[in-house]
Amino acid sequence: MSADLAVVGGGIVGSFVAHRAAALRPHWRTVVLERDVPARGATAWSAGADFPLAATAEHRSLVEESRRLYDELQDTPPGLFVRPVRMVYVVASSRLHDLRARTVADLTPTGAQEADRIRRMLPGLRFKTDECAVTHRGRGAVVAARGLTEALLTGGVRKGCTALQIGQRVESVERVANGYRLTAGANQWQARRVVIAVGPWELPRPLAPGLEAAVPEARRKRVAALHAQLPVRADDPLVYFVDDDLFVLPLCEGQALVSFRRNVWDEDPDTLDGQADAADLEEGVRALAARSSRAAAAVVGGRAFQDLYTPGRLPLVHTVPDMPGLSAVVGGSGSGVRLAPALAARALDSVLDSAA
Ligand SMILES: Cc1cc2nc3c(=O)[nH]c(=O)nc-3n(C[C@H](O)[C@H](O)[C@H](O)COP(=O)(O)OP(=O)(O)OC[C@H]3O[C@@H](n4cnc5c(N)ncnc54)[C@H](O)[C@@H]3O)c2cc1C
User: Fold this and answer.
1) Model-level pTM?
2) Which residue, 55, 61, 138, 156, could crosslink 22 as a Cys pair with Cβ 3.0–4.6 Å?
3) Ligand 1 test: best mutation among 70, 337, 348, most atoms within 8 Å of CB?
4) Spelled out in words, what is the top-level CATH class assigned to the domain 2-72+144-216+311-352?
5) Residues of the chain with pLDDT under 50
């Protein structure tokens, strides 16, 4: 079986790669090799929050490019999975200038109406002394990542340029004459170009040994969120308590997701089923209770999976000169959904005009 492009991994990053290939090279045959079914990894459990926040210049360029590419999905079937949401940041006034420097949008104070709205969402909400609430025009979104992944892949499948192979766990990617040989059990594919996007699974290093020199040490980190039955409406804002690294995202009428910081590393993704465990719930409830004990009492469960984190906490696209036509996206670092369009674009563009 041969292809112009093989994409290893059918999460949100791999699906954006296939989607872009279908748009830029509609005559190509692209094969997506997925060990399970699409969007069963980190993507399945993602909160999908797309903040216009960036820590460095490189980060900012990924944020801006991703936002532009997400905007291009508007009025297409995948665009249905991207929901604009108002974002409110609760931050110490003394740290407002740091937030301003990190925000790829102009911040303005929220009005009294918005403050009342937040208090209604989180009954008994406690603000810390010196905290203020700010927002920005537009530019915040929530991505229904699992649905979007499937919609992106389906577009290419329907056009006839994407072949989705489910249940194919790629064990090796080897350089051969005219491209790469990918082996999954008894099956083999040959492709001129390969993009590896396996989320927190096998690091590209053992998968494609030639990438060794370029891939930095990255570690798997647990990422968890709570589900709480709160008096929220679907059009309420996402409220981010910046100094607590905690946000409350209305999912639908009466239910919100609460994202909080978790510090558990190096688990095996194959041991996780996506459900929050007792320790996740305990830590999350404690973090939320510091803001609103009534909200903490309304927690009904949660989700937890992992993501791969790079040392700089920024996803990276890797290529090496002696492996032309091969690239790997490494380390969603908790931002793999919001940055997926730009990461996929960079990974694909790096192999578009180079082939082994
Ligand atoms: C609870 C939680 C909340 C999150 N919230 C946010 C958020 O608000 N905003 C945000 O931007 N990000 C968030 N993230 C992070 C984000 O979900 C990830 O960064 C992103 O989904 C990574 O996408 P991916 O395609 O790289 O990986 P994955 O979705 O894990 O996809 C990788 C795919 O590769 C497949 N695969 C693996 N190995 C092989 C192989 N050898 N052969 C074939 N297929 C293989 C897997 O089955 C999987 O389908 C969150 C994550 C979690 C867990």
Assistant:
1) 0.97
2) 156
3) 337
4) alpha beta
5) none
